Amino acid sequence: MTSILNAIFGAKKPSEQNILHVDMHSHLLAAIDDGVGSLEESFEIIRKFRELGYKKIITTPHIMSDFYRNTPEIIQKKLKDLQDFLDSKAFYFPVEAAAEYYVDEAFLEMLRNKQPILSFGKEKYILFETGFMNPPPFIEEAIFLMQTEGYKPIFAHPERYIYLYDNFSMLERMIEMGICLQINLLSLTGYYSREAKKMAEKLIDANLVDFAASDCHSLKHFEALKESTKTSYYKKLIQKDLLNNTLM
Ligand SMILES: [Fe+2]
To answer: How far is the CA of 113 from the centre of ligand 1 (A)?
Structure first.
């Protein structure tokens, strides 16, 4: 029956097949990190997200003491600028902001001093990342501190960390501590590297992925995101119980 309907009305559009309604990792606030450069570019990308079937974006600028000294105030101000810009275009789409925290000494201090941390969702999720080559020696302390303060840590793109490729048990320990994992959809196409693709597939096969996100920095990334939805592992991934849509 479906094939007859498809023959009459055409196959389902990609937006109808997409079950990810919330993207929770991207860099879409203008000129605040290595993400988009202008409000026009943000608008263009968000428009494309909506076309793909997304219903909400939680964008996450970097906070990293060496390069991106963003604060909750700066991020909230930039979010307001974006929302005003979307309103001015009569484009109504929910965009929220949190951050992607780089685990460094400054982040530890913020936690120790109980400074405000940008989180999202009812679970108070914090998105965090580390350097790609080496883990910080205090990674487990940082996880413990986040949890002690009532947050739920989400490890951004675990498939991209070179230090985990020959030390999977380190990731297993972090999972045992209770963190969530978020993979980048672009990894499924081999966009970053063959190793990152292999690791993402391994995590999907092992049912260890909690969230899947774009980590979109630019229009170029968005085009690669569309490609990722054509991969066999994307189809596998969206059959899993991902938590993205709990953030609606
Ligand atoms: Fe990111």
So the answer is: 25
